[in-house]
Amino acid sequence: MSDKKREHLRFFKKLFSRALPSITAVFLCSILYYWFLPQQPAHEWLLLLLMGIALFKIAIIVHFVYNRLGDVLGESHYMLHILGLFGLVIALNVFTFTADYFGLYLLDPAHFDIKNFEPNSRFHIYFQSFYFSLISYSTVGLGDMTPATFYGKILVMLEIGLYFFVILFGTAHINKINIKD
User: Fold this and answer.
1) If 0-12 CB within 10 Å is exposed, 13-18 middle and 19+ buried, where does residue 42 land?
2) What is the pLDDT of residues 71-96, one digit of tens each?
3) How far is residue 115's CA from residue 145's CA, in Å, rounded to a whole number?
4) Where do the domains of the chain lie, and which CATH numbers do they carry?
5) Which residues pair with 113 in a beta bridge?
6) Strand locations in the chain, DSSP E?
7) What contacts 98, CB < 8 A, 6 or more positions away?
């Protein structure tokens, strides 16, 4: 194995070991929502719990991005590393909100206005949530799915806020990036 490949391997091991708490939080919430949330209109306390979990995950991701990745950017000088780092951050953001939109839809489909959508299964709802999160995060906003309630709108605003945080993080640390290849 060449030195460059070893360096890439070392970088990605370090990156994923630092990202493990965030990845675990997002994954566990997705699994818990998928298997244990009732598919019925929810009590207010359940909606507040879902919002609290969303805020907790955002705090973990912000901590991960700001405190853990700033130093990683300073250590790495390969384009592959920079793209991997930002790809991981974007994936974390999209999947955390996928889980939140999914949970909110399960608690009450009235939280979203969705055109041409007949859910066949929880997987279909999860896919629609992923689609909406990706479209929202990319700021395309096609309009085929929109938040219809206070809680839906809050989640979308939080996702957009997190998106801007990532942009600010990238521009604030641009001076640390010195690309070799």
Assistant:
1) buried
2) 676 676 677 777 888 888 888 889 98
3) 6
4) 3-176 (1.10.287.70)
5) 146
6) 112-114, 145-147
7) 30, 126, 129, 130, 132, 133
pLDDT confidence of residue 150: 92
Contact assessment for residue 105 and residue 129, using Cβ atoms and an 8 Å cutoff? yes
CA angle in degrees (0–180, nearest 5) for 103-108-110: 120
pTM for this model (two decimals): 0.84
Buried b (16+ CB within 10 A) or exposed e, 64-76: bbeebbeebbeeb
* C-alpha triplet 70, 29, 154: angle, nearest 5°: 75
More confident residue, 146 or 80: 146
Alpha carbon distances (Å) from 135 to 91, 142, 159: 13, 7, 11
Alpha-carbon span 173 to 181, nearest angstrom: 19
| First and final C-alpha spacing in the chain | 19
